[in-house]
Amino acid sequence: MQRGEALLNSENSSGKTESENPGKRDFGQHKNQTRQIWEYSPAGTTHAPALAEGSPEAFRQAYEQRRQTETGWLWKLYVLARVKGRKVLELGCGAGFDALDLIGAGAEYHGLDFCENNCRRAPENIRQMLENQTCVETATDCNEPDAVPEQNPLFLCGDAEKIPFQDNKFDIVFSNGVLHHTPDTEGCFREASRVLRDNGEFWVILYHRHSVFHWLHLFARDLLFGLAPETMEERLSRIEYSSTGAKPLVKVYSRSELTRMLIHSGFQVEDIRIRKLTWRDFPWIPLLGRLIRHIPQGILDILAENWGWYIAAKAIKCKQPIKRRLGVLYPSGCQSSIAPPWNDPDYEIVKPEELKQKLSACLKNFNFSELTGLWNSYHSMMIMSPSVKLLPKPFEHMAALWFLCPHDSWIWGEDRSNYRITLPRIIHEFFKLCRDRLLSIKGRSSVRRLLKILWSESISSATDNTTIRRDGLTNDIENSQDHVYSTDHVYSTDYENIRINGKVLYLRTDLSFGIKSGGSVAHVTGVASNLQNLSKGVTMITTAPFPDMNESINVKVIPPERFWNLGYEERSLLYNLECIEAGLKEIRSTADQPIKLIYQRYSLNNITGAIISKNAGIPLVAEYNGSEVWVSSNWGKGLMDPEMASNVETLFLKSADLVVVVSAPLESELIERGIARERILVNPNGVDPDIYRPDRDVASLRATLIGNSESTENTGFAENPNDYTGSKYSDKCENSDGINQILIGFIGTFGVWHGAEFLVQAFIDLLSRRADLSKRLQLVMVGDGITRASAMELADSSPFHDRITFTGWIPQNQGADYLCACDILASPHVPNPDGTAFFGSPTKLFEYMASGRGIAASSLGQIGEILENNVDCLLFEPGDHQGLAHCLETLAENEKLRNELGANARKKVIRKYTWEKHTRRILAALETSKSHEQKNRIKD
Prior knowledge:
ten-stranded mixed beta sheet, 30 helices, disordered N terminus, alpha/beta
């Protein structure tokens, strides 16, 4: 008999696997009828009809026939010599053809079959064939693992969906052309994985969906005989058989379907081959069979590699469980907002770059096996973005996900605006991409004209009739005389009482989303909140909502939805049009309480503040935290057009009335770029000392970090947080051995410059040298970012991995608690990789100082200028592991020193480096800058 004369699909139309839809089929009917079929007519009847009666000669005849058609390629793919001395389980032993080869090769053989007749026939057939008359035992029915006798070889009657053996028992599980007859093929795969040992091998052969036999069968069934096409469910729910021969409906599988089932069952696919194409595969069309019989078998073997009747796989059982769902975080900062279903342990969370690297590696090396595995590794895939409307390049992302997982891929947003990726949606996004490409031509033209305006010497005359056209809209940039800038009555002259007699327009134009913590968050909220306190109100135009923003600030989110299918640089340039329209609209709507100041945090290619300032006559303060071109080149992937980005950057800075930088190296850079020194303010970052204070109640958090639920002491100075007279303001906790713990803390976004790996290595060096401190010291790394993974890898590879804790991302409003829970705070900043001066002003430094803890800090750049060694911290040379380890060691052993240094640091930060003083310095410098400009005009 030729098995599988009627074929069916392995999956339903929804794309779910067999085991996920058990209610749609009568599994019991399938099993009972299949048992009757194979009891009546076992495999091989086509080649030896007498085999049904159990004739030994018929078995020999059928065995020889199989050797000619199957055994050659079968034992080349599955090396028969590898079974010697290994425990092998065959699922569906049938009449014993493959069992004879396996036993003869020295395997410790166990056979499992669904039919009692096969379990009786197979041992008898093998006894007749083996010359050494190996003892062959049979157990006609066995469903309990404990009831299985330890004999070799052993034949059992049982169900492959419930294998009657204990876990981790076999080295190899083998099944040849059987499991496609079972209702739950994937369930059989999972059972095979269960009984296999780690790194055990699974050899499985199923029927191939794209075989010539399958195609010709469907052609004959649906066309030649005029039968109406059946749905896959109808085919799968029906079994045909008659008294003249067995015809059980079976399932067929493609390469990708088989790969997906193996991976989902806990296997790593090692190889998949397509085999077997002979003239005997077409007996139901005698004429076609006779014609094909004259084709040389060598040609048929070549065709069989793509369109053969069998698909054979070799897979290895994985030691670690396989993740069944993939979550892609976009951007990486979205980790701050992970929410269900992302907390599901079944999800593997990756970043876009990691998924891109996987796909690129497969395509670059043309490794079809790996690519197929990636295609089918997951049941579902999902991209998480702060908003589905703000996912950059949606067409590319949607097409990639749909390509990798077409049956269940999603876009998931924080705003719950989720949707499933379907082919119509992808087509829709493609047409939007085409539209955006056309509109970007007009948009770029408008932006170029704006840039020319800023270069022009006569700004006012050049802007009278300037028009911005965007998507059919016309926005006139008006040179309104109602808002012409004047220094009269704008600021008071008293620094401590300086205020703005009007409103402030704050522009945050970064095309970054999902960022909920870090120095940039602290800077934006700190400056905006104090501008609100020192003016008649602040209106913030931003690309996305900001966490912990002062509720009295009027926040207007202008999502950059237009041109979102374009590249990052082009998007950032065209976003000027969105911001300029919103800014001018806001100025016109506040004529009763006019805007007196524009403050913009510079971002790549954005000149919004400069355009609005020149046209509305309002002074512009530009916040400059470093060159976007340099940052992208040294800490990012680089820009496509760095020259243009640099020119836009310079143009924006020259258009500002005051440029605020956080460090002296940035001031030197601006002077070299032609910015007048008197228009530059070096203004280090700051802190809110009312939030970052040493008397916060952190006893429970500290106990959690140490791993002890009981706090032994809670001494602070809640009555007067500014009383720094050596008070023991840390909450002490003991570990399980009763030893007081000392926590060394680090907080940050794990940037390249933060030195997270450097700190971990120094901590490991310290504990390696001082074994007595290994039970007292604990390193707490708070935050997340690009270097966290490498820092964790370094920690995990050390013998002190249990003394290093990585908390992951935490909300911004919890950062003060984590700092206060520590005894020592580390600032291990490292030099720039290109040797240029360190231009940062670490926000964490001021937060450390306000927390009143002992600080071990690198003397790099501004850090060494603000802190004084042995007065308010312990400093070490940048890049000196031993120096940092020595600082940590000294602070750990001297509690009194920690307290004194922490108290001095808090005094200094309150005196000089609060966000309020930071903001007042900006307003005072702007007035001084405009006064200096007016004096120069008088001289001229």
